[in-house]
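User: Sequence recovery, please. Input:
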């Protein structure tokens, strides 16, 4: 039960951070004259940084192997993104979306592996 609550808290934190960051970039795009391509790039860079940071933080807190912890973090991020994608863009799956999701997994696992090594 405790692991389920921890997983729920983790998804809630990620959701809040992603929503706030996306709203901030969207407001800059709307009122600041930023191009659509630049807004998309900034959103994905922020998401990759967030996945690396969450993996790093979880890696510093764990005693287990870093790649397993990073996999759990990336699973929670991917679950959230897939849910949003299915709800809002049900017919727009592309190869680039799968590539972005692979990058999220990679950054999260690398962050956890670096975090577990920096713990000492």
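Assistant: Recovered sequence (120 residues):
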């Amino acid at each position: 039960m405790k692991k389920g609550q921890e997983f729920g808290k983790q998804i809630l934190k990620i959701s809040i951070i992603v929503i706030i960051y996306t709203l901030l970039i969207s407001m800059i795009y709307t009122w600041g004259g930023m191009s659509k391509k630049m807004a998309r790039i900034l959103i994905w860079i922020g998401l990759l940084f967030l996945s690396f940071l969450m993996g790093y933080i979880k890696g510093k807190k764990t005693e287990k192997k870093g790649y397993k912890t990073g996999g759990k973090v990336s699973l929670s991020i991917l679950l959230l993104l897939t849910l949003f994608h299915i709800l809002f863009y049900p017919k727009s799956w592309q190869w680039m979306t799968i590539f972005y999701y692979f990058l999220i997994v990679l950054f999260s696992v690398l962050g956890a592996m670096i975090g577990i090594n920096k713990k000492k």
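The first helix runs from residue 2 to 32.
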